[in-house]
């Protein structure tokens, strides 16, 4: 506790105090710091107005330690002396103001006690209790604690309290003090009582709410392994070996590798043998396919070989066609058969050209080669963008197939080579036709340099000779067809020609240079390879386009033509009028001489019928007249005799090829007479036909 | 003679086996490559302190691919762990170290 005592004694209290209040600040300023501050006098409104003399009047005030109010004349009865005596010593102490402070020196006993209490409180009591506790509680708390305090400290405190005069007064402030101290933070920082204030407010706590959901944990798996030096080493060695191997492989792949050449070779050979394996399989597959087909078509094969129509004997002069195999392929569906050709070497193999005769419905083309041994699937298949219109196989090189396309191109396929594209092909640069190529034919004889060559005829009026020189096709225009009498003179002296559209041609069997050309106008020209501007002869053969023209295989003078005007005509090329005319009541698509007799030929018509003639038997009508395709809608387009077997193949515009066997009557040889050997050979055949022709000639002349 | 060869072999081995060799991994390609590179970097940086290397890998992986990665690096140890699928990489490095990195939270 601190105690402040002030004694003020003045001679003139009333004025003196006022004066002092008024001037206390300025007096000091005047005396010491006059230079630093300008004098400003603030006067209260009720200040006494004093004259200068009054103001200058000095008042002397003396501050003494004597209490002016202290009684000077205290008389007390002295029992010792038995009289009243004046007491000289008077207590001068007067208390004007007393305030109990709440600051306690740390070192003091009370301070130490307080610290101790705080520690105890923090250790044992919960802070909440401390906050909530009353002052009385605290007082109560305090006293037992004080009692607990050491006896020494208590004794000291009691002795110490002698010094403090207002101990009793201080009790009042104790609660305040006690209230404050427990609240102090634990670091014992005593709060400044003068400007410390405390505020608190209570807010609502937000409500708590639980919300949860469950989800699948991320999938886990177990993994275990052991790592140690030898395993790591092994793994690395393995990896290195692998790397080396791959390097070696890369080396082997490059053909330059020399050292590893042997290895590479071995690998290569193994690779080759692998590919060989595939071909071996294909070979085996082919054999199996043949075997299956042989089983499936056994009856047909038996018919082909042995069946002879017994009824022919009784029919007399009439024959029939026995259908054998039917060849067709899904890829060539709806593509008309536009060309047929037997292979000159393999008598069971024939080529079929697919395209379209319909000007409005041109699409792709196909070249298929079938064997009678395998009627179910073609041996070779080639596709082309443009329809095939004609084809021919080479006599001496039976693997070379020349085809003519609708777009005017000619191309040569080599069956020996596995590629699907033609080996040779004409281009617009190398003189291809500008119109469909209607017929192609290999020349029997090679030219002087032994280069292969073939001819082609097209609607553009050109007949072109193509020569295979090394790896390209060289073309030569042999002749340009001009319609006779169509030449018109134009003022400049130039001549304009209407070109004839060639549709068919055939070389003479013996006279090398001579050939026949049939045209769309119905005319047939006899031409020579040497004269490109002149025809040797012109026949007004037909009223419509000539579909086929062919020389008799035996008789050098005789040829035959057929046309869409329903007729087939047989000619002697030396005579401008036909020898025989047969009207077949439908457009004739193709005619073919038989290879075994000079007088037998076959014609096919678009009404689906095949007609076989033997002039030796019947000069006037066909000895066989038979529909050979299933539907009437099917038009037969082509016919070909097999060179040795008594069979024909017939193609229709649905893409089917039918093989038919000629009955005995259709291939009747001259009857054997008793004791006479039947003569055979070309001479007999020529004589036979000549005999017939003579009959006609006689009639005509 | 044999000894020198042996030494030479060892040197060769050390020289050759610096590449990381992934023994097992079900990570996606991109992640695997990144982790592999990280492992190589860490093992090279702390070539003589596997602990630090593992710490570096773990902390980087945590940052890159989310928390709870675990890394074991050592020359010889066996383990059986449970890991989140597509989050495991077990590789050999430097010819002597095995590093297993996996995630499991």
TrEMBL record, chain A:
InterPro entries per the UniProt record, alphabetical: Dynein_IC, WD40/YVTN_repeat-like_dom_sf, WD40_repeat_dom_sf, WD40_rpt
One cellular component (GO) term of this entry: extracellular region
GO molecular function terms noted in the UniProt entry: dynein heavy chain binding; dynein light chain binding
Segments of skewed composition (Basic and acidic residues): 243-253
Subcellular location: Cytoplasm, Cytoskeleton, Cilium axoneme
Alphabetical UniProt keywords: Cell projection, Cytoplasm, Cytoskeleton, Dynein, Microtubule, Motor protein, Repeat, Signal, WD repeat
Extent of the WD repeats: 539-572
Primary location: cytoplasm
Signal peptide residue numbers: 1-16
PANTHER family: DYNEIN AXONEMAL INTERMEDIATE CHAIN 1, DYNEIN INTERMEDIATE CHAIN
Family per similarity comment: Belongs to the dynein intermediate chain family.
Subunit structure: Consists of at least two heavy chains and a number of intermediate and light chains. Interacts with BICD2. Interacts with CFAP45 and CFAP52. Interacts with CFAP53.
Name of the protein: Dynein axonemal intermediate chain 1
Organism of provenance: Ictidomys tridecemlineatus
């Amino acid at each position: 506790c601190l105690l402040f005592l002030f004694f003020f004694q003045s001679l003139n209290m009333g004025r003196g105090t006022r004066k002092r209040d008024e001037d206390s600040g300025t007096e000091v300023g005047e005396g010491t710091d006059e230079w630093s501050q300008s004098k400003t006098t603030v006067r209260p409104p009720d200040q006494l107005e004093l004259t200068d003399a009054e103001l200058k009047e000095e008042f002397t005030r003396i501050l003494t330690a004597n209490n002016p109010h202290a009684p000077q004349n205290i008389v007390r009865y002295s029992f010792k002396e038995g009289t009243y005596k004046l007491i000289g010593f008077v207590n001068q102490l007067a208390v004007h103001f007393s305030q109990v402070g709440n600051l306690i020196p740390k070192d003091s006993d009370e301070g130490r006690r307080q610290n101790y209490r705080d520690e105890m409180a923090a250790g044992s009591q919960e802070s909440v209790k401390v906050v909530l506790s009353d002052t009385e509680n605290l007082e109560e708390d305090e006293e037992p604690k004080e009692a607990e305090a050491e006896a020494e400290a208590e004794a000291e405190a009691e002795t110490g309290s002698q010094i403090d005069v207002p101990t009793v007064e201080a009790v009042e402030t104790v609660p305040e003090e006690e209230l404050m101290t427990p609240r102090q933070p634990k670091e014992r920082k005593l709060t400044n009582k003068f400007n410390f204030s405390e505020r608190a407010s209570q807010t609502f706590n937000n409500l708590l709410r639980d919300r949860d959901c469950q989800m699948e944990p991320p999938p886990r798996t177990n993994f275990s392994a052991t790592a140690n030096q030898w395993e790591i080493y092994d793994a690395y060695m393995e990896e290195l070996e692998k790397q080396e191997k791959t390097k070696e492989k890369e080396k082997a792949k490059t053909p330059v590798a020399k050292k590893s050449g042997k290895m590479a070779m071995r690998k290569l050979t193994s690779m080759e043998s692998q590919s060989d394996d595939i071909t071996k399989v294909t070979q085996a597959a082919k054999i199996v396919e043949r075997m299956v087909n042989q089983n499936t078509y056994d009856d047909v094969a038996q018919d082909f070989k042995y069946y002879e129509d017994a009824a022919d004997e009784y029919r007399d002069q009439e024959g029939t066609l026995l259908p054998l195999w039917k060849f067709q392929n899904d890829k060539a569906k709806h593509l008309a058969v536009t060309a047929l050709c037997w292979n000159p070497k393999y008598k069971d193999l024939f080529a079929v050209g697919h395209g379209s005769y319909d000007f409005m419905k041109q699409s792709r083309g196909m070249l298929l080669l079938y064997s009678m041994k395998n009627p179910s699937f073609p041996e070779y298949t080639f596709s082309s963008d443009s329809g095939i219109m004609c084809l021919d196989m080479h006599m001496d090189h039976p693997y070379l197939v020349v085809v003519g396309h609708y777009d005017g191109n000619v191309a040569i396929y080599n069956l020996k080579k596995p590629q699907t594209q033609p080996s040779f092909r004409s281009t617009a640069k190398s003189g291809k036709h500008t119109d469909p190529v209607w017929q192609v034919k290999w020349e029997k004889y090679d030219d002087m340099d032994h280069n292969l060559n073939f001819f082609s005829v097209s609607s553009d009026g050109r007949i072109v000779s193509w020569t295979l020189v090394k790896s390209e096709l060289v073309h030569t225009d042999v002749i340009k067809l001009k319609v006779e009498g169509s030449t018109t003179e134009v003022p400049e002296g130039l001549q304009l020609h209407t070109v004839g559209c060639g549709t068919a041609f055939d070389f003479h069997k013996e006279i090398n240079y001579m050939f026949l050309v049939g045209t769309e106008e119905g005319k047939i020209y006899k031409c020579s390879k040497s004269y490109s501007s002149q025809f040797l002869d012109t026949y007004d053969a037909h009223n419509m386009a000539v579909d086929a023209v062919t020389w008799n295989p035996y008789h050098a003078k005789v040829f035959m033509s057929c046309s869409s005007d329903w007729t087939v005509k047989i000619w002697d090329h030396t005579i401008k009028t036909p020898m025989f005319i047969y009207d077949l009541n439908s457009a004739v698509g193709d005619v073919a001489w038989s290879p075994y007799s000079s007088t037998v030929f076959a014609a096919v018509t678009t009404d689906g019928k095949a007609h076989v003639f033997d002039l030796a038997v019947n000069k006037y009508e066909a000895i066989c007249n038979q529909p050979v395709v299933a539907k009437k809608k099917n038009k037969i387009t082509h016919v070909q005799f097999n060179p040795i077997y008594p069979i024909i193949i017939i193609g229709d515009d649905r893409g089917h090829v039918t093989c038919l066997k000629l009955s005995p009557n259709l291939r009747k040889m001259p009857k054997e007479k008793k004791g006479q050997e039947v003569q055979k050979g070309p001479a007999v055949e020529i004589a036979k036909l000549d005999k017939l022709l003579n009959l006609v000639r006689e009639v005509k002349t | 003679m044999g000894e020198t060869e042996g030494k030479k072999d060892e040197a060769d081995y050390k020289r050759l086996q610096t590449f990381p060799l992934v023994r097992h991994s079900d990570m996606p390609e991109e992640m695997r490559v990144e982790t592999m590179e990280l492992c190589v970097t860490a093992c090279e940086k702390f070539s003589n302190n596997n602990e630090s290397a593992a710490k570096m890998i773990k902390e980087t992986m945590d940052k890159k691919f989310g928390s709870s990665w675990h890394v074991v690096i050592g020359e010889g140890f066996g383990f059986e762990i449970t890991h989140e699928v597509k989050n495991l990489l077990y590789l050999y490095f430097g010819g002597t170290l095995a590093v297993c990195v996996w995630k499991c939270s």
